[in-house]
Amino acid sequence: MQNDYPCSGVPPRIALVGNPNVGKSSIFNQLTGLNQTVGNWPGKTVELAEGTLVFEGATIRIVDMPGTYSLSSYSEEELVTRDFLLSSAADVIINVVDATALERNLYLTLQLLEMGLPIILAVNFIDAAYHKGISFDFKSLQEGLGVTVIPVDASSGQGMTELMGAAMRQLRSRGGSRPPRPKYGKEMEYLIADVARELHAGNVPLPDGYPIEWISLKLIEGDPEVMRRVKLPPDLLARVSEKTSAVG
Length: 248
Ligand SMILES: Nc1nc2c(ncn2[C@@H]2O[C@H](COP(=O)(O)OP(=O)(O)OP(=O)(O)O)[C@@H](O)[C@H]2O)c(=O)[nH]1
Ligand SMILES: [Mg+2]
Description:
Layout: E1 13-18, H1 24-32, E2 36-40, E3 47-55, E4 58-64, H2 76-86, E5 92-98, H3 102-114, E6 119-124, H4 126-131, H5 138-145, E7 149-151, H6 160-172, H7 186-201, H8 212-221, H9 224-229, H10 234-247
Parallel strand pairs: 1-4, 1-5, 5-6, 6-7
Antiparallel strand pairs: 2-3, 3-4
The structure holds guanosine-5'-triphosphate and magnesium ion (MG).
């Protein structure tokens, strides 16, 4: 099966997302070589490098995102990345993590999963990790997160074919195999569902592509950017604040 993608005619796009210095650009260079251009995301000052590669006969676009530790809305990089990902600009996300600092890197992974995005995990710096004597149970990691995990070494290019193979499988599933959202305690899950119900019942306009449960979670957290973009009628705002403060 080749060239069989959701938007026929437009090459699918894969975004490389991860903490600063985890090897996103190295993977980008390994995959795209010299086929690169640099552009700005509309209305923002952050530059995004885009390149193309041909894999299994299909043309694929790859975007190298700026490094970010989180997807809250406190820096331009975070906001650009978040907007880009939530606007469905990428068909698949390769979340690049540093194998020598896996636990710290997985904080961003959880945020991507919260957003309901189709991610696969590239565990980079695998050479450095093995050198340090760190070993991994990739099967448990994969099962625990519900995402495909591929060990890679961007300095040598090891694992790139496997990584692209996994990305292509995700592309071909047409969004049908999105990983599950992480679940919180019973009380929090109840609150998320409750706020989502209120948004739905109140016919509140939501930004395109933003999952309603994610919006609910962000409203509960008081995320300033989501509060700005989702215009809650005053009575609904009061009810949401009341629910939120009852738990917090
Ligand atoms: N040993 C080893 N070095 C790597 C690997 N991947 C990247 N590097 C090195 O790590 C450094 C950072 O890599 P980059 O590709 O620039 O990382 P980045 O994620 O694009 O960084 P930012 O764009 O600043 O967020 C470079 O010196 C790379 O050569 C790897 O798998 N193994
Ligand atoms: Mg980079």
